[in-house]
Design a protein that fits this description.
The chain has 496 residues and is of the alpha/beta class. It folds into two domains: 200 residues, no CATH class; 229 residues, Spore Coat Polysaccharide Biosynthesis Protein SpsA, Chain A, CATH 3.90.550. Helices cover 55% and strands 10% of the residues. Strands 3-2-1-4-6-5-7 form a seven-stranded mixed beta sheet, sandwiched between helices. The longest helix has 34 residues. The relative contact order is 0.12.
Length: 496
């Protein structure tokens, strides 16, 4: 009975943590809906007066981006801003043939009158954070706009973001990500679905109430003085953007999030690229929880509610670990429930936590219908997309849980950038991308085993107990089976 008690205890703790996170998401939904009723006004620079137009530096941190460099540079120079008040830094850590082709492009743009520099380092110390920090030393701009290589800001981007810095308390202006290849595949659709929820529900929900948000690493602008005051870029976590964001807000800098300013970008189309990105984001989130938790809790400048939201924000990636625990233990729990009659009341009470899924369903529906409409046809599409998203997200839970555990236990690893593809249409192919990993992670084997494990869970629904089975967990096990199956087979087929 001791083993059963331990299983029940761990299972219950994981369910409670998921439920608390769901309640936080519900609170963010209320914040989001209330924010739509209020049009916040704040002072802005008047760009009709030349003396109010500040000097801006655009930083482009890149590493081996041969497929997208030309697209990136040609797009950046189209931004409508006075040339005499704009500087572009290409922070190039590349070690392949893209170095030469990028240099040629930059020289061509320099001849056209653009103030653009090709900045090279002797080593990749600090990775992206190190490159940004080194560029900052010689940056002429009072404001620093940052774009990753796959982002394509629109021509009026600076004119829609820089004016908000007239408020001297604002340290960062962040914009919403768009997706130029949203409909390329199931993988890109569910990535877009998840990111859309983050850039609406979470960013607006937190920012509208003054809770901490994060600069998303790209498609945003920093006040240079804010970066310096917060301690500058640090490369001791894999999400340097989240790290500096929290240090800045702990020093009372305000962040301004612009939901209505969309910055298009390319989603990873190969599952190996998505895995790489997910690993970095989730490990970095756990690393920042370890780095920032006590600073947040000890701060005297922020409210209790902001502290709670901040801790849950920093624990965001750890939810994958809780989901994995609940999934794995749900099968022994199925047998325990039908073996011990006196525990059935406990299971009825614990089934209340199915409401967590319902909360996520409701929150994401509000975000989805804003862009896609609220009719019956739209709702039916949403049902299929939510089911697919939830299944595949759970299928990534082993991969992401390993990242989370490495982050919490302090295992160091290099910053592995996400390969870019220059995918714009459904006919574009990524198969010959030279930056894709060719080896299959051992984790893929375990994902295949988990697929079989949850197939056993579905089979168990028919055989447990003496009342003709127990199908309460069957939908959950079906989603886990499909999710791990998708990740497993997609990972194998991408290597063929």
């Amino acid at each position: 009975m001791l083993l059963e008690i331990i299983i029940i205890l761990i299972y219950s703790i994981a369910l409670i943590l998921i439920f608390l996170y769901a309640l936080a998401q519900l609170n963010l939904l209320f914040n989001y809906l209330n924010s739509q009723k209020n049009i916040e006004k704040c002072p802005e620079f008047d760009f009709s007066k030349s003396d109010e137009i500040p000097f801006v530096t655009i930083q482009l941190p890149v590493f081996n981006e041969i497929y997208v460099m030309e697209r990136l540079l040609k797009n950046i120079v189209l931004i409508d801003y006075p040339k005499e008040k704009l500087e572009i830094q290409v922070l190039d850590d590349s070690n392949d043939e893209s170095l030469e082709s990028t240099a040629i492009l930059i020289k061509m743009l320099q001849k056209q009158g653009f103030d653009i520099q090709h900045i090279l380092r002797k080593n990749r110390e600090g990775f992206k954070a190190g490159a940004l920090k080194e560029g900052l030393v010689i940056a002429k701009g009072e404001y620093i706009a940052i774009f990753d290589a796959d982002f394509l800001p629109k021509t009026d981007w600076l004119k829609r973001t820089i004016p908000f810095f007239k408020d001297e308390e604002i340290g960062v202006v962040q914009t919403r990500w768009g997706h130029i290849n949203r409909n390329y595949s199931i993988l890109t659709k569910i990535q877009a679905f998840a990111l859309d929820a983050h850039f609406t529900l979470e960013q607006v929900g937190r920012n509208s109430k003054g809770h901490f948000i994060n600069f998303n690493g790209t498609a945003g602008v920093w006040r240079k003085a804010c970066i310096i005051d917060a301690g500058n870029w640090e490369g001791d976590t894999l999400t340097e953007d989240l790290d500096l964001s929290y240090r800045a807000q702990l020093k009372d800098w305000k962040f301004k999030y612009l939901e209505r300013v969309e910055t298009p970008a390319e989603l990873p189309v190969a599952i190996s690229a998505a895995r790489s990105q997910q690993f970095r984001w989730n490990k970095g989130g756990a690393e920042n929880f370890q780095k920032m938790m006590w600073r947040v809790l000890k701060s005297k400048n922020i409210s209790l509610k902001t502290k709670i939201h901040s801790i849950l924000h920093l624990l965001n990636s750890t939810m994958f670990l809780n989901v994995l625990i609940v999934g794995i233990l749900s099968i022994p729990m199925l047998y325990i429930k039908n073996e011990y009659e006196h525990l059935k009341m406990y299971f009825y009470v614990m089934s209340f936590f199915v409401i967590s899924t319902l909360i996520f369903f409701i929150c994401y529906w509000f975000m989805y219908k804003k862009s896609n409409g609220s009719g019956l046809k739209s709702f039916i599409k949403y049902l299929g997309l939510f089911f697919t998203f939830f299944s595949i997200a759970m299928g990534f839970s082993l991969h992401n849980s390993i990242a989370v555990l490495e982050g919490h236990f302090g295992k160091r690893s290099d910053f592995v950038r996400t390969p870019k593809f220059n995918i714009n249409t459904l006919s574009d192919s990524w198969k010959k991308n030279k930056y894709l990993k060719k080896n299959i992670s051992v984790n893929v084997i375990f994902e295949g085993l988990l697929m079989l494990y949850f197939a056993f869970g579905m089979y168990s629904a028919f055989i447990v107990g003496d009342q003709g089975g127990d199908f309460g967990l069957f939908p959950f096990h079906l989603m886990l089976f499909l999710g791990f199956g998708f990740v497993f087979f997609k990972s194998l087929s991408s290597k063929i």
